[in-house]
Amino acid sequence: MPKGWALPHIVQRGEVKPALTWAYRALAVVFALAMGGIFLALQGFSPLNVYGTMLRGALGSPGMQKETLKLTIPLALTSLGVLLAFKMRFWNIGAEGQIAAGAIAASYFAYFQSHLPSGLLLSLMALAGFVAGGLWGLVPAWFKTRFGTNETLFTLMLNYIMFHFITYLREGPWRDPGGGFAATPRFPRQARLPELPFPFVGNLHIGWVVVLVMVVAIFIYLRFTKQGYEITVVGENERTARYAGMSVKRVILRTMFLSAGICGLAGMLQVAGPDRQLTDAVAGGRGFTAVSVVWLARLSPAGALVVSFLFAALQKGCSMMQTEYRIPASMSDILQGIILFCVLGAEFFLQYRVMSRRQVAA
Amino acid sequence: MPDSPAIELIRLTKCFDSVTACDCINLDVRRGEILALLGENGSGKTTLTNMLSGIYQPDSGQILLDGRAVSIRSPRDAIRLGIGMIHQHFKLVEVMSARENILLGQAGRAAISPEEAIRRFGIQVDLDKKIYDMSVSEKQAVEILKVLCRGADKLILDEPTAVLTPQEIQALFDTLRQMRGEGKAIIIITHKLEEVMEVSDRVSVLRKGVNVGTVDTASTNRFSLTELMVGKQIDLDVKRETLPPGQTLLKVQNLSAVDEGGRALIEDISFELKGGEILGVAGVAGSGQKALCETIMGLMKPSQGKVYMQGRQISGLSPREIIRAGVSMAFIPEDRLGMGLVGGMDIPDNLLLKTYRDQKGFFLSRRQARAEAVDMVRRLRIVTPGIHAKIRKLSGGNVQKVLLGREINLNPKVLITAYPVRGLDIGASMTIYDMLNEQKRNGVGILFVGEDLDVLLGLCDRILVLCAGRVSAIVESQFATKALLGMKMTGLVTDKEDDYA
What we know:
The complex is a heterodimer.
Chain A: E1 9-12, H1 18-42, H2 47-59, H3 62-87, H4 95-112, H5 118-147, H6 151-171, E2 195-198, E3 202-205, H7 207-224, H8 226-236, H9 238-243, H10 248-275, H11 286-296, H12 301-325, H13 329-351, E4 352-355, H14 357-361
Antiparallel strand pairs in A: 1-4, 2-3
Helix pairs in contact in A: 1-2, 1-13, 2-3, 2-12, 3-7, 3-10, 3-11, 3-12, 4-5, 4-6, 4-10, 4-11, 5-6, 5-10, 7-8, 8-10, 11-12, 12-13
Chain B: E1 7-16, E2 19-29, E3 33-39, H1 45-52, E4 60-65, E5 68-70, H2 75-80, E6 83-86, H3 98-103, H4 114-121, H5 136-149, E7 154-158, H6 166-181, E8 185-190, H7 193-199, E9 202-207, E10 210-216, H8 222-230, E11 248-258, E12 264-274, E13 277-282, H9 289-297, E14 304-309, E15 312-313, H10 319-324, E16 329-332, H11 347-351, H12 367-379, H13 396-409, E17 414-418, H14 426-441, E18 445-449, H15 453-459, E19 462-467, E20 470-476, H16 482-490, H17 492-500
Parallel strand pairs in B: 3-8, 3-9, 6-7, 7-8, 13-18, 13-19, 16-17, 17-18
Antiparallel strand pairs in B: 1-2, 1-4, 4-5, 9-10, 11-12, 11-14, 14-15, 19-20
Helix pairs in contact in B: 13-14
């Protein structure tokens, strides 16, 4: 046999059945937990105990479940926004900035128009959040259509502008004069989101309704509307879109406005919901996590909801583990990293099959 | 082992996913022989040559060179073993001269000098000319010289004639015969039966990854080769129906267009297209065919000149405006999947591309498109697992049927088609010609951009010949010959080459 005959063979797969996809991912999680377990054991912890704590921390009681859901809401909504842009192959990784823009605009109404009745005020805040996020998203979209700029870099850079703008507001004009350190004031009562009972966990801010409505709305929008159809065509093949007479620029601008607008709305829900004030942690890395969520969900809105919940549970579980075992935050980050790496790595095996030579020849 | 063939393949097999591209192929080429490898697209020719040139590794089977079993694990191995591959797309450094390209990466190790190769094989190339100044045929000659100078004695040419004019093809064949005389083993890949008959000693026919037969060229003919290739006897005659001329539909007047750098793509093109007429467009690849189609369609702005549709000026409008203005024009782009269809969508969604905007309201109804798709699959005998199969998964012929079917369903008055049969087998091509002739009978004016001169002569009423972006002739097909078209296609290029002769 010639040299190199034993090298494994990498073969591209055809269509993969959804069941197999999820089986592979489950396997990846198990593998990740095993790797993480070794890591924990080396540090002198009992992996089983730690994992048990993580599970308990994420889902162990209605209170824990509620906290996990609170993390799910903004992540799921942001993912839905990012999903719209990704469907068009517009790599919007500027959700952080768009969340912040939405949060700032909503906060303006909370701080300066609080004389309005609560229902009207919250509606205005939601609208302002959506529009402000959308406009912030239009900036890279416009430059892309006008000058062909790279949206990945552009959207990323815009994040930092918004982030520092919040810092400026907090230190300067919007600083709470009564506070000892630089912070914005708490929102007045009428600018806080009402709560509605969520099955089994009790009252939860109304954002969960918004998320569920949005999942259905985005699904219908992409699947059953002309605009959704245009997004698919532009994403798949811009030249064909042009040839079919579509105004590609308009589709890009419109879709990016919606995508960023939804992220802005997520920002509004965050400040008016759990945060009750404007902080620079309003986005909290969700804009980036959403990218992984959308990828793993394969651009499916319902899938994005499920994956967001799992991510939130992981995050919540890790923070529980941190407090209970006094494990440093960096170690919990490493554990999260291992799990993410394995799950994303499994995607490779979903696209390619590794075979030995003999198998191929058979 | 003087009697062993230069190249011998024994049960060579290669699979991609579930598709077997090459299935137990046995093949041999002797020294001093030209073997034609004939087969439709997707029959495994390219995979086979890629295994010989070290790009793919076979899954099983053996390659013997001069009677010795070898494993070719990289293109470098292939060169070392004396295999020279001439690809369809040239791999040359544009800013360097021919000589520099030939010697690139083999400094001091050239088996023979470029000058000697030119002398021995009768190749016409100016070694000091830069690649960017060269015509397609000159570039091809450089590629051939390159592998010869590397000492290749087994040459594989992948559709070398696709980009050449008839005169250039003759020159290439002369070179090939000269190389055969020197004892080289040559494999030439082609679809064109005339060329097989003219230049080859033996023919191997591939069908669906299987070698269905190897025959001596002298003892076969076009019809039996076709039969081998497609598996059934097919009427090769393209029919031209003469109809009384209709009204002028499309009028193109002094149309010019330039690329981003200001270089002229088409210059001063004028013609009229009448209803019930097929106007062919002939030309060497890259003579402005694409620019002509795209300018008419509004995908490219003309720098000069006007286009009228039934007397109404449409030049300068965007594609959307042209469609909105109610101008019936259907455009089948050169690169079918690149522009015209969306590979990741199913048949109904692709049918909706041009009509979805006519639906009222915010939502999109697919009911009609689904019915249309079912009807089209049945009527045009499109081979697909179902209407919801992604277009990308269909074969070239079926993709073309979907595209042409959609455009015809729009009831156009003018149908522009570019290379509608490129890559299709003969059976599928005939279906496409029948569809075009049916449209012609319905009074549609058809602009047919083609590459096969036999087809152009057989199908079209008149032929417009493009040469370097200009109209070099508009001739009636019944009075034209291939030789005449070939001359007109080269036009200026021949004059230029004369300077070097």
